[in-house]
Amino acid sequence: MLIDEHNRVHDYLRISLTDHCNLRCFYCMPEEDYAFMPNQQLMQTHELIALAKIFVDQGVKKIRLTGGEPLVRKDAANIIQALGQLNIQLTMTTNATRIHLFIDVLKSAGIRSINISLDTLQREKFLMLTRRDQFDQVRSNIDLLLQHQFAVKINMVVVKGMNDHEILDFIAWTKHHPIQIRFIEFMPFDGNQWKSDKLVTLQEMLQIIQTQYAISAGEREPNDTSKPYHIEGHLGSFAVISTMSAPFCSTCNRIRLTADGKIKNCLFSASETDLLTPMRNGFDVLPFIKASIAAKHPALGGQFSNDLEKINTNELHNRSMIAIGG
């Protein structure tokens, strides 16, 4: 098992297939003309599968594929099918623009749950936020997933003055659709212009929702990052990921593997451990993995505290979200 110095067992691996994306969301990608990694710098399919197997041998039970946008990678189908052969729970986070091209692959690989990034229900605003006219395709593919009985979670990053007024619209969506909306507090990353006055906290979100709905707290799993809630009479539900105002670091079981083969033991960690280079040079990478997990900070990568107004994004040492993989 992979256990850190704070006695947290790490059995959930998030693998970024690529830093490429066909959208340009501001909080994820710093600029339109982003310098993507060259192909030779990325984990090749056999390397990615080999690393995944090492993690599975060390007790990883769940793997989530991320990006960038994972489904823009040319060999995404091969990777999905290969990982589907491992005895783990396989899932994915996607912007859903290409789901219709992969629905059969996802089903054959045993994927039954998909997280979809969608920050607005307004077509014009979607174009403004993503700089791409893909709204109708995304909505169509969400319906397609539901038709095929996938569990669908919608990730909405809430930013004050941008889409916080849509919170109730997303809640209304759960009335007749068996989806879970996950409202995510805006988090600071390289180049995403985070400021504390743009943050909508857990409590602020709940106050907005309770102006129209009576809510009840749902049951949380041991390592949940989200706090689930239910509304009577709704087929769906909602949850809040309160990374900034109410962190959940004490129960974290997550490991991140970037598309260029570096392990990050926390989303906010300043340091990374290269696994790809030693693997290509014939070294056993397990000691590197164990050392990285053991060195994990107790909370938030050791870079900032809950005093939100004191966070200076210019002093943070991290990648942009698209280069981490979420």
Low-confidence stretches: none
Radius of gyration (CA) equals 19 Å
How much is the average pLDDT? 90
Query: What is the CATH architecture annotation?
Result: Alpha-Beta Barrel
State the total count of DSSP E strands. Answer: 12
- The number of distinct structural domains comes to 1
| Main pleated-sheet profile | 12 strands, mixed
Order of secondary-structure elements: EHEHEHEHHEHEHEEEEEEHHH
CATH class, anyone?
Alpha Beta
Helix/strand/pairing category: alpha/beta
CATH topology: TIM Barrel
Q: Report strand order across the widest sheet.
A: 7-8-9-6-5-4-3-2-1-10-11-12
Terminal residue distance:
23 Å
Fourth-level CATH superfamily: Aldolase class I
Give the helix tally.
10
Topology:
Elements: E1 12-16, H1 45-57, E2 62-66, H2 76-83, E3 89-94, H3 103-108, E4 113-117, H4 123-130, H5 135-147, E5 151-158, H6 167-173, E6 179-185, H7 202-209, E7 215-217, E8 227-231, E9 237-241, E10 254-257, E11 262-264, E12 273-274, H8 276-280, H9 286-294, H10 321-324
Parallel strand pairs: 1-2, 1-10, 2-3, 3-4, 4-5, 5-6, 6-9
Antiparallel strand pairs: 7-8, 8-9, 10-11, 11-12
Helix pairs in contact: 1-2
